[in-house]
Specification:
The chain starts with a helix and ends with a helix. The protein has five helices and no strands. It has helices spanning 2-9, 21-40, 45-68, 76-91, 100-105. This is VanZ like protein.
């Protein structure tokens, strides 16, 4: 989470992305965070709270980009990509990958 926060609030790297490529980055970053939450929390309130927290974090970071930085701008489409990523990551709960860390660690 710290990496996503820092990357969201520091100047972007000077690299060219394909059109809407940053949306893919947002989607994948938040999908990874939510998939990690699936590994950490049992299904139920704690997992849903983690998902809602990630969505709120994504929205808050978009507001912060617009209000606190000179090099970034708030983009509702980024917040939407973040939310889609959270849903995608939480969706891993329905796959055989849901217990990946348990199988690896045990």
């Amino acid at each position: 989470m710290a990496v996503v926060c820092v990357a969201s609030l520091t100047p972007p790297p000077p690299m060219e992305l394909p059109r809407h490529g940053d949306k893919v980055e947002h989607l994948l970053a938040y999908a990874a965070l939510a998939a990690a939450a699936v590994q950490v929390f049992r299904p139920g309130r704690a997992l849903w709270a983690a998902g809602i927290g990630l969505v709120l974090m994504g929205v808050a970071l978009e507001f912060a980009q617009g209000a606190l930085t000179q090099t970034r701008m708030a983009d509702p489409a980024d917040a939407l990509a973040n939310t889609a990523g959270v849903l995608l990551g939480l969706g891993t709960r329905l796959t055989r990958w849901r217990d990946l860390l348990l199988r690896r660690g045990g």
